[in-house]
Amino acid sequence: MTRNNPIFCALDTTDIDHAVSLARGLKGSVGGAKIGMEFFNAHGPAGYRAVAAAGLPIFLDLKLHDIPNTVAGGIRAVLPLNPSIVNVHAAGGSAMMRAAAEAAREAGDSRPLIIGVTLLTSLDRSDLAATGVGGSTSEHVRRLAALAAAAGLDGVVCSAHEIEVLRRDLGPGFKLIVPGIRPAGSVVGDQKRVMTPTEALSLGADVLVIGRPITGAGDPRAAAEEIARSLAA
Ligand code: C5P
Fold it and tell me: Considering only CA atoms, which residue is closest to atom 8 of ligand 1?
């Protein structure tokens, strides 16, 4: 799926025509597209199908977090859409993640990867403390990623700064999906801790989630191709 091109472009928009035209234009220059709750809550399965019809693998970024039975049902409900990746919050706990992984297996060989969201990068140590979690953000990320691996998930979403330690903790087969990626010299926007695509890949990322550096470019396809070229160099 992502062997040749690890870039998944985040289509963060509620404009269905824009999402479809980005997906069509990016076919062949990225490894896949990411559809999140903003688009999916606005356009649902029909909107998803319209984007997926462009032919790109889709990462359905729903960040599910509920009791195990409900999350399993949520996963089952999207299996007919044939996404490549679906995610759940690792903070939902072991039983919830196991239920999600088991539900996905019902799709057999075409099942999506089930990925755990560790800690949102918008949260820092003081936010964690306010929710009753002591220690550093990186300790918490390691704890949640280990829990996700033990529960049978295929990998986690993590910041670029945790790639190295999680790769060491969890071995080569565990997928690391990394947002907050910025090509050298591009606008950082609201991302606080960023890394270039080349650095993140060389540290061991499997999927690079890149949004605005591609979607905000005058020519998104050219921007994606330039990033892909920089990775191949
Ligand atoms: O435009 P940009 O490259 O910043 O987009 C990054 C994408 O990754 C967005 O869809 C954002 O919601 C998502 N994401 C993130 N940081 C996380 C988790 C997801 O930026 N910790």
Answer: 179
Condensed to tens digits (0 to 9), the pLDDT of residues 86-142 reads: 999 999 999 999 999 999 999 999 999 999 999 998 889 999 999 999 999 999 999
CATH class of 7-227: alpha beta
Q: Is the CB of 158 under 6 A from ligand 1?
A: no
**Sequence ranges of the domains in the chain:** 7-227
| DSSP assignments along the chain, one per residue | --SS--EEEE---S-HHHHHHHHHHHBTTBSEEEEEHHHHHHHHHHHHHHHHTT---EEEEEEE-S-HHHHHHHHHHHGGG--SEEEEEGGG-HHHHHHHHHHHHTTGGGPPEEEEE---TT--HHHHHHTT--S-HHHHHHHHHHHHHHTT-SEEE--GGGHHHHHHHH-TTSEEEE--B--TTS--TT-SS-B-HHHHHHHT-SEEEE-HHHHTSSSHHHHHHHHHHHHH-
User: Is 63 marked active-site?
Assistant: yes
* pTM of the predicted model as reported, rounded to 2 decimal places: 0.95
